[in-house]
Amino acid sequence: MSKTLENLKEAFAGESQANRKYLAFAHKAEQEKMPYAARIFRAAADAETIHAHAHLRAMKGIGTTEENLKEAISGEVFEFTEMYPGMIKDAAAEGEKSAERSMDLANKAEQVHAEMFKKALAEPGKEAPKVFVCQVCGHIAEDHAPDTCPICGAKGHVYKEID
Predict the structure, then answer these.
(1) Average pLDDT over residues 121-148
(2) Interior/surface letters 84-97, b for 16+ CB within 10 angstroms, e for the rest
(3) What is the pTM of this model?
């Protein structure tokens, strides 16, 4: 792998993490009634997304929709079969209950994500149903939000409809 490709991968990861971190910071600023800080965090998060997408394009990391769906399936399967199980075990061994729960919920949601990508791969041009995401654990539901999340048990009102 060339040094430039290594650098692009590192930059992509850094920009992607900054985006997510700044959105979390914006949410906290909103909770603390600090609208200016919240808006600046959201603006910076958007800018970081622009950077990340540019780096991904430079890496030629965006293929056809079929290729992208296959890559997404592979990534999700890796997460719930290899990555998260060991991490959950480590957190449990260290008594880190919050981390263990966070990773366990994500692990369960990743399984659902993989299945959703598989469905999209089988019928990529299908009319899109309504899609809802649990804002507690990341579970995805089609057509309507369930009354209770099957992964974390949250009430249906925490689901957000995705365009």
Answers:
(1) 96
(2) beebbeebeeeeee
(3) 0.89
